[in-house]
Amino acid sequence: MTPSTSSAITLNINGEKYTLPVDHRTTLLDALREHLDLTGSKKGCDLGQCGACTVLLDGRRAVSCLQLAVAAEGRAITTIEGVTDGERLHPVQQAFLDLDGYQCGYCTPGQICSAIAVIEEHAAGWPSAATDDVRPEAGVPALSAEEIRERMSGNLCRCGAYVSIVQAVAQAAEVQGKEAVA
């Protein structure tokens, strides 16, 4: 008897459950785009190197072209379509608009999802390769342009909008910090 190479899975995407039949080799990116018409996540390199397909899995960033859809079952998946709060843009989305953190826009969904996770990681005190002092007693480092560039380095922009992207991430982190205090 030959084992089955497909099955029905249920994915929790942007707070909604979707059940779909997939081949076990289907990536999360292809399940999102081809099976569910959630086309915000882009297929760039299909090798996990450009970040255009970045989504959030349980709040952490993941390149969906390397994640099998069957392995995402039972996890909270957030795509660019799910980061808004109703009609209100996420602070990262608003900052990208305000500061022109995009040009052609192809990488923008992945950039935004990654930036959301970057801000959360930083706020939680996670160090990066650019963090000078990683000792816990040193506290959370400043979210400098160098920190942002290092933390966002997995997302490429062929248009070269990096200066505006760094500014947008910094602005969104500041806005979210003020909202958290309020």
User: Could you tell me how far the N terminus lies from the C terminus, measured between alpha carbons in angstroms?
Assistant: 61 Å
Strand content: 5-15%
Low-confidence stretches: none
**Count of alpha and pi helical runs:** 5
Order of helices and strands: EEHEEEHHHH
| Count of β-strands | 5
Defining traits:
about 180 residues, 5-stranded mixed sheet, alpha+beta, 5 strands
Question: Summary?
Answer:
With 182 residues, this protein is α+β, with helices and mostly antiparallel strands. The protein is 32% helix and 15% strand. Helix 2 (91-98) packs across helix 5 (162-181) and helix 3 (108-123) packs across helix 5.
What would you say this structure looks like, in words?
- The structure is a single chain.
- With 182 residues, the protein is of the alpha+beta class.
- The chain is 32% helix and 15% strand.
- The chain contains 5 helices and 5 strands; from the N terminus they run ββαβββαααα.
- The protein has helices at residues 28-35, 91-98, 108-123, 145-151, 162-181, and strands spanning 6-13, 16-23, 54-57, 60-63, 76-78.
- The chain has a 5-stranded mixed beta sheet with strand order 2-1-5-3-4, sandwiched between helices.
- A hairpin with a 2-residue loop joins strand 1 and strand 2 (16-23).
- The radius of gyration is 17 Å and the shape is globular.
- The N and C termini lie far apart (61 Å).
- The model has no long low-confidence stretch (mean pLDDT 94).
